[in-house]
What does this fold into?
Amino acid sequence: MSSKVKGGTDGAHRQPDGNREIYMDNAATSYPKPAVVEEALMDYHRNLGASAGRGAYPRAVQTGRLLDHTRKLLASLFNVGNPNQIIFSFNTSDALNLAIKGIDWHAGDSVIVSAMEHNSILRPLHALKNRKGIKVVRIKANAEGVIDPADVAAAVDSHTKLIALVHGSNVTGTLEPVAEVGDIARRSGIPFLVDAAQTAGALPIDVEAMKVDLLAFPGHKALMGPLGTGALYIREGIDLDTMREGGTGSLSEHDVQPDFLPDRYEAGSHNALGIAGWKAALEFVHEQGVDAIRAHEEKLMEQFLAGASHIKHLTVFGPRDIRRRIAVFSVRLDEYAPQELSHRLFEGAGLMTRSGLHCAPGAHQTLETYPLGTTRLSFGYFNTPDHVDQALAALDRLSKNPIIAIR
It folds into this structure.
């Protein structure tokens, strides 16, 4: 399948000196975006520019319809019955804060998480531990970063108020057993929160089949929208306290927040500009098909793993089975600190990667890569087999010539 978009770009850009830059940091944010995203942003600037719900004039009404259409696109993507159960946020961290802090916590309550969680889950829970006296129960992961659902079931008790689990690790690419844990949570009557920061748009997600009660996800990663976009799905029947209150354009005669969704959780004017770009990106994702996007990234994963297996002194963390992972690879190359490796890969081959702990210290403790971390290469829809070949060639050259430049 082609990884190019008409009028778009193949993900490689020319530097002023003529060297090629290749973006491989899609786990942080996807880049480039489909060409239609830029067009939608400009169209909003030129032709709308209004705030939804703040006027009866056509531009405000059309902005409201834009928001509604975006919710419907997301609902269709994740098998959500009522689009109004999708709450716009500024990013996944914002959505996770609402999901976690909106629970009615009391001293002695507990939450079950995995050892692979991102700080976007760990830090809100740490704050609640200090403020509310809750207990955080961490489930250990194996050497590939996978937890055992049986360990989750064994950890559930009468004090468990929430189970939270990352779907795909931003460090190892590991896919966690979300459906199995969702079944445990549903049978136990415990809300189940899933962090889909790395998986929304990269592989199919069905909140009904997976028994997900709360799904937090970004607009700017595999869903290919602009930064500053994200959302939280809240299953009907799940009641969360509000994180903020303010204007909604609805029930303005009352000084209390409306009790209906989405207004209850969306105080103030929306990031309508960002959502306009996100809507265009979602239409692009629907047009391509998540299954096709997944198939493309599986080919890149297979290619990278096969090539990496022949590079001496290179360690690749996470599952070798592409069905059990996403296109996020943490690597270590002997003789190089992670930051040095990232620097060499960029200076010598134009590869844009990320090094360090990736905001997931527990994952690195599991991998025994703490405190230095790893170098991460994360592929996206606009990466090509040629990009992967160039990454492998650069790693191979560095492995053979550790004290000289790549070329």
Q: What stands out?
A: The two ends are 32 Å apart (CA to CA). The chain has a mean pLDDT of 93.
